[in-house]
Design goal:
Elements lengths: L2 H11 L2 H11 L5 H5 L6 H13 L3 E3 L8 E3 L2 H40 L8 H17 L11
Antiparallel strand pairs: 1-2
């Protein structure tokens, strides 16, 4: 499928009314009047939607006496599915790698937790603890009683 064709198919699928029409046609062919029944739209509005679907190659219109039933053409939908499938595989691979990484991190954390607390602290933690102790010393009143002069 050419990018132009893919773009027109995706553009046609972007509208919820057209997707509903395609869903209806998946169960069999239907006339314009039958397709318009569930919508609160005029027949010309439905016809414009059908024209977009026809131009995208998603439907065809036949002729049976005075009726012109619409039929679903699944080939463009398969092309879209094939296009999306490439990206699905890409995202699955990325998510699988992320899952492996998370399992690795969790197992390392579990090993570290079973060995007890770390034996060293980082400089930032030591600095923070030192500041806290200095602040505590300067703001804490002395608990010693003054000597009585008697």
């Amino acid at each position: 499928m050419t990018p132009d064709r893919l773009s027109s198919t995706l553009a046609a699928l972007a509208d919820p009314t057209r997707r509903a029409i395609l869903s209806r046609l998946a169960s069999g062919e239907a006339t314009v009047t039958e397709l318009a029944a569930p919508f609160s739209m005029t027949l010309p509005a439905i016809s414009r939607h059908l024209k977009v679907l026809r131009n995208a190659g998603l439907i065809t219109r036949g002729r049976e006496a005075q009726w012109r039933p619409c039929r679903l053409e699944p080939a463009p939908l398969k092309d879209v599915a094939d296009y999306v499938e490439e990206y699905r595989r890409l995202w699955e691979d990325r998510l699988n790698r992320l899952g492996e990484y998370l399992r690795e991190v969790q197992s390392k954390e579990a090993e570290a937790g079973s060995q007890g607390p770390p034996k060293h602290t980082t400089r930032a933690k030591r600095t923070t603890a030192k500041k806290r102790s200095m602040t505590t010393k300067s703001t804490t009143p002395s608990l010693k009683k003054p000597k009585s002069s008697t």
